[in-house]
Every structure is written in structure tokens, then in C-alpha cells.
Predict the structure.
Amino acid sequence: MRAHGQPNAAGRTETRAGPSVVLLFGDGYRVEQAARRWMAAWCPPEDRLWGAEEVTLDGDGEEPIISALRAVLVAVETAPMFGERKAVWFRAGGVLPSPRFGRGGAEPWMQKLVARIRDGLPVGHHLLITGSAIDRRSALYRAVRECGEVGDYSLPEKPWERQREVRRLIEQELAEAGIAMEPGALEVLVDRLGADGHLVHSEIEKLVLYLGDRRRATATDVREIITVTREVEGWDLADWIGARQPAAAMEVLRRLLDQRAEPIQIIGGIESRLRDLALIRMALDRGWLRRTDRGAVWTDSSEATAAMEGLGDWDPRTMHPYRLGRLAEQAEKFTTAELARAGEAATRVRERMVGGFSSPELLLELLVLQISRPARRAR
């Protein structure tokens, strides 16, 4: 019987190449990139032909699941034809393990895989498991967490946090491609691309080919070649209104209407943003809030506490510092009087919608143009 890897002080079975078992789940593109890095670390090019093996779960029935689990167990137990290192990649696909793994004949095979992970793999052998999601209560998740390493590449649930992650991915892809962006071009790019990492990568490749020898892209380049793959949200419109960019705000509004968003919901989102900006503008003016490199922070003010403690869900002090900083940046683009007038205009639009005005879309367009246009400078 071959010897197995020994757990370290933390209880994890490791080799010189790191943990012997790794579980990755979340966004497909990020998982794929991380998985390839692990496989390259475990099985260098000279060993890849004989030492790397992939098992893909193809199908939802019981038989494909049993076949895949059996193949994984055989693969991690079987020595490579040449050399001593072996890396097995189990591509589980969707949610792992889902209820389909715990029913009927598949359950004993999953239990065997969990037991093998806890007992340790043969020396020099590694197992990589990838999927889109995992039940954190499952025996598989607990076994890998305790005996190996888990990588969570899931995108945040909150839209603004998700969009921040998308922006980071886009910036990373642009940097790797050696492409710089003109002012405003990155915002247009982020606005057009969704959270699918594979699509982001493909669209950046298109941009690189379109630019040719150029290494700097403009907003016009982005609009010419990048496909709109992201469904916009109400907060996208609110962000462009807050940034006082009427052209971008109008483009997002039309995309929302094309997606059949309800006008009454759109106006509700605009009113909510204007309310937030008015509160934050007041806090900035009174010194209750100050901008920082990482967002914005509240000062220790009893006056602010007295003014906002009754706001409940509308209390801006409960916001994440990053989001608060974004809103503070927008609030600084308006005066208190401008925000008051914008709020009144939005209320009038809502009243006309509820009153049965025949074209709520036209009301929204006029409102967005009115409240997002930059302030006129005195001559």
C-alpha cells in the first residue's frame, strides 16, 4: 500500500506544492483561471502529458454522477505512468454537491470521495474540484476546508459591489493586454460589460484587435466595437444622474425601457437617489461627513446622531464606506438648492404618471435631462 500525505499542524494535507486538495467555485472565468494556476503548480509542463488528468461531469442523471465520482477516485489512486506527481481536475460543473449527489446510488460514491480527502491522497497526488457553487453545509465542503484549501470566486450579491468586482476584472484584463484608456472610456466599458468573466475576456480581446498597433482606447472605440452584454439596473441610471452625465444617463434610461422596466419603478429609484444625495450633501456641508481615499467616514457628531437616528432604513450612516464615498462624490456635484429642485421635479413626474399621463417614458426622458445636466457657470 502506498504512503499518503501527512496533515500539517493545521490539519491540512500538504506537499511541497501546497495543499493536495483544492476546491474552487464561483464565477466560471475566475475559477478557470485559478484552476489552471493550481494545475500548473502541481504538474509542470514536463509532467503534464502523463501526470495530469481531467474528469468532467456531463449530465444530471444518476449514472453520469456515479461514473464521474468513480473516475475521480480511480484517478487519484492510480500512479502516473512516468514520474511521481499527478494532478486530477474534477470539473463538476454546477452546484456541488447538489441534492442529486446525495440520492440513491450516488451517495456512497460521494462518501468515498470525502473519506479519501480526509484520509489524505497518495504522496505527490493532488485533487482539484471546480463548480459554480457549493452547499457549505455539505460533507465535501467541510472536508476540503479542513484538509485542503477552498477558493470562493463568487460575485457579490449587491449590484454595486458586483459592478465594482467587474471593474476590477476589466482593469486587470486591460493591464494584461497593455491597453490604457482615455478619460471616460473605462466608465463606458464597465457600463457595457456584464459580470460574465468569459465575455469580459472576449470583449477585451476584440478591443485589442480593433485597436491594432494603438495601445490607448477612447470612449468612441469602446462604443464602436464592444457589445452591450449587461442588463442595466436602476442604480446605473441613478449613478449617471449623480455624475451629471446626461448623455450616458439617457442611454441607460433607454436600455432600461427596452428591458421593459416599469416607469414607476424607475422614478422610484431616481427619487431614492436624490433623497440620499440630499442627506449626504447636508452632512458634507455641516462637517458630519468627510471624504477619504477609501470612501467616506462619519465624524463623531452628536448633532448628526440627533438628526439621523430616526431615519431607519434611510440612515446613510449604515452604508458601506466605499458606496458612501461614491455618493459623496456625486453629492458634491450639486448644491443643496439643486437637489431640492430635482427632488420636487421627480415628485411632479411621479404625480403625472399616477394621474395617467399617456407617455411616462417621455416624462422620464425630460426629467433625466433636466436633473443630470451640468450646472451652468456664471459668466
